[in-house]
Specification:
The protein is α/β, with parallel strands linked by helices and about 325 residues long. It has helices at about 60-65, 90-100, 115-125, 135-145, 165-175, 195-210, 220-225, 245-250, 255-260; strands at about 10-20, 30-45, 50-55, 75-80, 85, 100-105, 180-185, 215-220, 230-235, 240-245, 315, 320-325. The strands form two sheets. It has an eight-stranded mixed β-sheet, sandwiched between helices. The chain has a four-stranded antiparallel β-sheet with strand order 2-1-4-5, covered by helices on one side.
Length: about 325
């Protein structure tokens, strides 16, 4: 399989799908298929931060892990700087995983409590054989300094640090291999509000200083507005709206995007629309509604919405916006 592609630099994802079989095996119960992601396409230009937002269970984290090849998609393309990521194996896949790193959501669960911070940061360098012992030591100390932690604390264990400090260690671990692409999966949601801004400022500075590309997964629109130039809104396995973050949040065109925005901590009462009161829960990905998956919750739904899946179409106005809705706002 050819690993090279003519796509532009950065990350390009096209028609990504991932289904899981669940259940079965007990009293002859039939297995179900959960459609985690269906035909997801998005682009992350080199050096930019792109948001992926939506409710819990919509498939955001599955997209993030598929892009990193931590889960294998069933179909679709993932291209990184012209390289077909799904075709990689062996040393080529190891190199990609060095270039593409993950910052986890939970700084408490993502660090090994039995290892010192130095051991945690040294391990990726040793696995990838990046440097002599002296060079590895210098890299570890430089990473600690870059994320704002004292070098003297390298001999301590993760449990001796606060949540914000642990997330800084997790960021240092992601940076230690000199990646050019970071997936940040809800990186501040487990932190106190007072600490979130500090971590976001750190990530922003690292992005600018290193020219990093980010896929920033979040359910918090305020965080995405602060960090991401472009945003993709996801609902039940599909991208329903894409474009510049400020335009999407200030003038949402998909009814779900507006609902998501108006349910954020600072809603816009002048433009609020109500969900259908009888169906406010996210439908099951194992039994998604026909047609537009949002139609049971949408106050604007019509007959077409109940039978036909909408495709993404350009939005009138500034270039770069798309919406998958039969009757956009």
């Amino acid at each position: 399989m050819n690993t090279h592609d003519s796509s532009p630099s950065g990350i390009v994802v096209e028609n990504l799908r991932k289904h899981y079989a669940v259940g079965g095996g007990l009293f002859g119960r039939a297995r179900q298929t959960v459609r985690a992601i269906a035909d997801v396409s998005l682009s992350i230009p080199k050096g930019q931060a792109v948001g992926l937002v939506g409710e819990s269970g919509c498939g955001k984290s599955t997209v993030a892990r598929a892009v990193l090849r931590l889960v294998e998609p069933d179909a679709g393309r993932i291209v990184h700087d012209g390289i077909n990521v799904r075709a990689l194996s062996g040393n080529a896949l190891r190199l990609y995983r060095r270039r593409a790193q993950l910052v986890f959501q939970d700084p408490y669960a993502s660090l090994n409590p039995k290892r010192t911070v130095r051991q945690t940061l040294e391990e990726p360098l040793r696995v990838h054989r990046m440097g002599t012992p002296a060079e590895i030591a210098r890299s570890v100390e430089a990473a600690m300094t870059e994320v704002g932690l004292p070098v003297e604390s390298l001999s301590r264990y993760a449990y001796e640090f606060s949540g914000g400090q642990r997330q800084r260690i997790g960021i240092a671990r992601a940076l230690i291999l000199q990646p050019d692409f970071i997936v940040a999966d809800e990186p501040v949601s487990a932190l106190d509000v007072s600490v979130q801004a500090q971590i976001l400022q750190l990530l922003k500075k690292l992005q600018e200083d290193r020219g990093l590309s980010f896929l920033f997964v979040s359910h918090d629109l305020g965080v995405v507005r602060h960090f991401c130039y472009l945003t993709n809104v996801m609902y039940l396995g599909r991208i329903v709206e894409s474009g510049p973050t400020a335009q999407i949040l200030d003038d949402p065109r998909h009814p779900y995007t507006r609902v998501l925005r108006d349910s954020s901590p600072v809603p816009d009462p002048a433009h609020r629309i109500a969900l259908v009161s009888t169906a406010q829960e996210l439908p099951s990905a194992a039994n998604p509604p026909p047609g537009c998956a949002f139609h049971p919750r949408c106050p604007r739904a019509q007959d077409r919405c109940r039978t036909e899946i909408p495709v993404s179409q350009p939005v009138a106005g500034p270039a770069g916006r798309t919406v998958a809705c039969h009757f956009p706002l």
